[in-house]
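Q&A log
Question type: sequence-to-structure
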Amino acid sequence: MKKSFLVWLISFAATGVFLICLLFGYFTAKNGIQQYINVRNNKLDVPYSGGTPENFGICLSLPDEKAVLFNLDFAREEILVSDVSGDSEKKNQKYSADVSYDLFGEIVDKIGGIVVSEGGEEIRITGVTAAEALKENTAKSDEILPAFIKALCKNGIAKSDFLYILQHCDKTNLSVVDLFEYKDSLVVMLKNMRADT
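Response status: OK
Response body:
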């Protein structure tokens, strides 16, 4: 009888200690959560986001002084695209990339080709044809960059394609790390391009 009473007493005491520890842990945790909520909700004078980034330009330079400028406008979440061939002042941007004719042809293919006029008719040409026309400086070459900009603005470009261009250009001062802080905005902006006339 004494042995069973002693076992019961030890079990009762252990259960009591366990319940007291649980209650103490609950109220301590609840107090810590409440303090976190107060800090999160009451610190209105400290911004949690960095705000709108500063606009900048990226110049894609092709051989023979041809170039296309991408002006990133973060306030409007758009990219203004313009032909800056021969305009050395506009080519001087924060970022630049030297693009070969072959890579330009690949970009043209990624946006679905471009439309140029030939013999009074509009025809769609592939990247290889566009690159050859630019390289050989044919009569059609003056139409290539404006048609490229028009197609780019109409179709947009995927973020993966933009990164592909950066990875395969001949030379650039722009890296994926530079664009990391703009990654959320870039997804929207690359689909929201317009020609800067």
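Response note: The beta strands are 56-61, 67-73, 78-83, 95-98, 114-118, 121-125, 171-172, 193-195.
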